Amino acid sequence: MQDVIKVHCFGCGSLNERGLQIKSHWAGPEELVCRWQPQPFHIGHPGVVYGGMIASVVDCHAMWTAMAAHCRDSGIEMDGTALPFAYVTGKLSVSYLKPAVIDQPLELRARVVDKGERRSTVECVVLQRGQECARAEVIAVRVQPLA
Ligand SMILES: CCCCCCCCCC(=O)SCCNC(=O)CCNC(=O)[C@H](O)C(C)(C)COP(=O)(O)OP(=O)(O)OC[C@H]1O[C@@H](n2cnc3c(N)ncnc32)[C@H](O)[C@@H]1OP(=O)(O)O
């Protein structure tokens, strides 16, 4: 999905060579999936992914989830043309349930669970080797394009 909107965002921007370059995809009618391989320098405790990195990946994937769901609901094509809105993070709450090891990919599964006029509440689970290692609730707020 991020391939059609080329941005510099640290989380998803395909034009940010120092960024995380995450990619989000629909995986069913309600859920978007992101798979991300931590790099050795994303470490916190020995062998364990730094929690702030997990929060960063969740943050960006949740914004794409809110945006993709809103486009779907509004009949807006995500075809690379500039969108008339952006989503920003209002609140990000992560529960860390198990340590995530640094040498295995993470799988994020997110969906919009509640939607107001401009607010979308996104739930995201973070899995590693099929085990839930984190769970997050993110509030995404739709705003005017920022640039
Ligand atoms: C195309 C490329 C895509 C790239 C993806 C980029 C991902 C990047 C993600 C980020 O890092 S964004 C940067 C970090 N976030 C910010 O800088 C946001 C800073 N905060 C703001 O700009 C404003 O506070 C904000 C736009 C979030 C809200 O201000 P508003 O005055 O527009 O909100 P308003 O009070 O009208 O509330 C609108 C709705 O949002 C809800 N809301 C607003 N702020 C909230 C908050 N902080 N926590 C929870 N809910 C919040 C509010 O309750 C309400 O919900 P309901 O309609 O259901 O009542």
UniProtKB/TrEMBL annotation:
Catalysed reactions listed for this entry: octanoyl-CoA + H2O = octanoate + CoA + H(+); (5Z,8Z,11Z,14Z)-eicosatetraenoyl-CoA + H2O = (5Z,8Z,11Z,14Z)-eicosatetraenoate + CoA + H(+); dodecanoyl-CoA + H2O = dodecanoate + CoA + H(+); (9Z)-octadecenoyl-CoA + H2O = (9Z)-octadecenoate + CoA + H(+)
Topology relative to the membrane: Peripheral membrane protein
Alphabetized Gene3D superfamilies for the sequence: Hotdog Thioesterase (3.10.129.10)
Domain of life according to the entry: Bacteria
GO cellular component terms listed in the entry, alphabetical order: cytoplasm; membrane
InterPro entries reported for this sequence: HotDog_dom_sf, THEM4/THEM5_acyl-CoA_thioest, Thioestr_dom
EC number, UniProt record: 3.1.2.2
Domain Thioesterase, chain residue ranges per copy: 47-131
Family: Belongs to the THEM4/THEM5 thioesterase family.
Name of the protein in question: Acyl-coenzyme A thioesterase THEM4
Organism lineage string: Bacteria, Pseudomonadati, Pseudomonadota, Betaproteobacteria, Burkholderiales
